[in-house]
Specification:
The protein has no helices and 5 strands. It is mainly beta and 117 residues long. It has a 5-stranded antiparallel β-sheet with strand order 3-2-1-4-5, with no helix packed on it. The two termini are 26 Å apart. The protein binds zinc ion. Residues 2-3, 5, 14, 16, 19, 21 line the site of zinc ion.
């Protein structure tokens, strides 16, 4: 992090073309950010996506953190599709799906909250 740029996902070299430094350090992201954009997925995406059965439409959110980094992730199905640009969203770890052997595959999701956490 020679130039101070925060980025995600982690890499081994800074993506800033004016820097390309190879000294990268991990930093904590805030738990919440602001919903900068979203889209609604109304049809099951192709594999490797594992849809709910029966398929339920869900939202994909783009959340901007106060370090300027934007991260894309799904919104839990139970939240619904009524999202508001500019509203606070918290990051949570949740199951994406279960493998054939029952093992949960987990990742991040974004959920609207009344206040940033
Ligand atoms: Zn850099």
């Amino acid at each position: 992090m020679v130039c101070g740029l925060a980025f995600f996902p982690r890499g081994f070299r800074c993506p800033n073309p004016a820097c390309f430094g190879d000294e990268v350090e991990d930093v904590r992201f805030p738990r919440s950010g602001i919903l900068s954009s979203f889209t609604v997925v109304r049809y099951p995406p192709p594999p490797p996506f594992v849809p709910t059965d029966p398929f339920e439409a869900f939202a994909i959110a783009e959340v901007e953190f106060d370090n300027g980094v934007q991260v894309i992730g799904p919104v839990p199905v139970e939240v619904g599709l009524d999202l508001t640009i500019g509203s606070p969203m918290k990051t949570e770890i949740d199951a994406y799906y279960k493998n054939d052997d029952g093992t949960e595959v987990v990742g991040w999701k974004f959920r609207p909250v009344a206040e940033p956490v």
